[in-house]
Amino acid sequence: MQEMHAKGELALLFKPWRISTGPNTSDKPSPKVYLEGELTSNLELNVLQLREVFAYPDNLALRVRRVYVQSLNMHAVILYIEGAADARAIEENMLKPMLELEKRELEEAAVDRLNFVKDHVLSSLSIKLSNHYQDIVDELLSGNTILLLPEVQQAIVADTRGFKHRNISSPTVEQVINGPKEAFVEAADVNRSLIRKYLKDNQLQCEKVHIGQHRKQPVYLMYLRNIASEQIVDRVKRRIEQVQRDNVPNLYILAQHLEDRPYSLLPSVMLTERPDRVAAFLQEGHTAVVMDNSPVVLIAPITFWSLFHAAEDQYNRWLTGNFMRLMRITSILLTMLIPSVYIAISNYHVEMLPTDLMLAIAAVRERVPFPVLAEILFMELTFELLRESVVRVPATIGSTIGIVGALVLGQAAVDANLVSPILVIIVAITGLASYIVPDITLNFSIRIQRFIFIVFAAWFGFFGLALYMTYVMAYLVSFKSFGVPFMSPVAPSLSSSDDTFLRPPVWRQWIRPANLSPKDTIRSDPPERNS
User: Fold this and answer.
1) Which residue from 181, 185, 378, 453 has the least number of CB within 10 angstroms?
2) Membrane spanning segments where (predicted)?
């Protein structure tokens, strides 16, 4: 009778914590089950509830290990998720210290068993207490280990995360000749460590922000307390907390939730795989967002110059760095305007060409049966298809497809009189110029803009180009990222070290850009050098 009464009491205690999102008349639990309530002093009930959450023993992911601590005359239960927790750390820091504890009379253990085990027995570096079921489930899923003690309404949470991740390697997108060769990996703790390696500053703040309405996911916000503006930090933090989606797997998805204008061609945030760039942005007053499963770090807010500058601009000498920036500016203009200028001249402004060049172009286009617009759209779309196919095919044959495809298709199109040879040259120059744009999001934006310029040039010639260029410039100066003007500190003009289109020598960059409203605007003492 006592056993039946105990089972009935357990059943009554079991009911309150399972809550379904809607009516469910079947005996099976709803797919969405939210845990509410706190641990009880009944060890077996706590274990049963956690087992129910993970469908144990049908689901073998949850591992339950019962331990008898003879010196304290008690049974304890260790729970962890296979593959998420480090089994060796559990054995060395939890099991071994409890089993090897010497027999002795300890008043402290008898009075406060929980704190005694936490402070004097376990050897894990990070230990905390938790008494809420949902928090315990989240800790288990994060790779931590739970220790439950009898007649205690709190659980001991030990940091034993053992998720596997790849080793630190060289960047694959932001490659440099001069500069560090380290890139982020898919582990947030490793990425935070890399940032601290490049920025050894006690003012570097790392805050944990949770996203999601029911299943909280940790996101880490990093900034320098003595530099970053409190308004910008609060704005970024508030935008992150407003994300209520339960499944945000990585920063690529989170970035789309944080953007000011999701339908704009311009990005509001930047993703970088280089820890040295993150450290440089933090020193100017930006914020960095780190998240698990992401081999990149999110930078906010950003400006056009954040996307325009390359990773190794500061590592090269003054003349070399500025020469590369001039090449980059030229490449952006070539990518956007060369095809559209060719259409405008061919259709509306033939008189602008020298007579010999005009006759040469007319001669090679004599056998082409298509108008210039159809001809150039065919070649541009073919080049984009070729570029995308090279990215998707295996790396061992990607370069072969790129070279052979470009040569064969270009030559075959000319021989078949589908396109003119001069157009093949224009599309090739445009494609090569687009590869110089350092940021991938800015690269895509410019490539899409190219087609819009082509349409306006086909309709109105140079007048259409001027009209759309005016719109683009007006949009750039009105666009903002987390309240920061996109073209600042140039438009509006604010104090800075003039590190925009060109850069001064590094020893003259002693002022932080005022567009981020940094607390400390002086990076170093004013330079005192003889020219």
Assistant:
1) 181
2) 326-345, 390-412, 418-438, 450-477
SS3 labels along 106-169: CHHHHHCHHHHHHHHHCCCCCEEEECEHHHHHHHHHCCCEEEECCCCCCEEEECCECCCCCCCC
- Other C-beta atoms within 10 Å of 34: how many? 15
Helical residues (DSSP H) of 369-517, grouped into ranges: 372-392, 395-415, 421-434, 440-460, 462-478
Q: Which helix (H) or strand (E) holds 324?
A: helix 318-347
Residue 298 sits in the same domain as residue 343: no
226 occurs within a structural domain: yes
Please state whether beta strands 484-485 and 480-481 pair in parallel, antiparallel, or not at all (unpaired): antiparallel
Helix (H, G, I), strand (E, B) or coil at 289: strand
Alpha carbon separation from 341 to 207, 323, 328, 496 (Å, rounded): 50, 25, 19, 35
Structural domain of 405: 318-485
Do residues 272 and 444 touch, judged by C-beta distance below 8 A? no
Q: Is residue 251 a contact partner of residue 296, using CB atoms and an 8 Å limit?
A: yes
Query: Domain boundary at 269, 302, 335, which?
Result: 302
Same domain membership, residue 152 and residue 11:
yes
Number of folded domains that form the chain? 3
Q: Which residues contact 237 (CB under 8 A, 6 or more apart)?
A: 207, 209, 221
Closest Cα to residue 79, out of 190, 164, 155?
155
* Residue 138 one-letter amino acid: D
In a domain, 348, yes or no: yes
Whole-angstrom Cα distance, residue 477 to residue 486? Answer: 6
- Pairwise CA distance, residues 443 & 322, whole Å: 20
**Do 129 and 26 share a structural domain?**
yes
- Whether residue 238 lies inside any domain: the answer is yes
- Residue 407: its pLDDT value, please? 67
Helix (H, G, I), strand (E, B) or coil at 343: helix
- 260 band by pLDDT with thresholds 50, 70 and 90: confident
- Contact between 334 and 453 (Cβ < 8 Å): no
* Residue 128: inside a domain: yes
pLDDT tens column, 49-74: 888 888 888 877 888 989 888 877 88
Q: Cβ distance 152 to 114 under 8 Å?
A: yes
**Residues sharing a CB contact under 8 Å with residue 469, sequence separation 6 or more, in sequence order:** none
Q: Same domain, yes or no, for 210 and 134?
A: no
Residue tagged 């906010």 (tokens): 300
pLDDT band with cut points at 50, 70 and 90 for residue 437: confident
pTM: 0.83
Is the pLDDT confidence value at 399 over 70?
no
Asked if residue 468 and residue 345 are part of one domain, the reply reads yes
Task: Tell whether 215 and 143 lie within a shared domain.
Answer: no
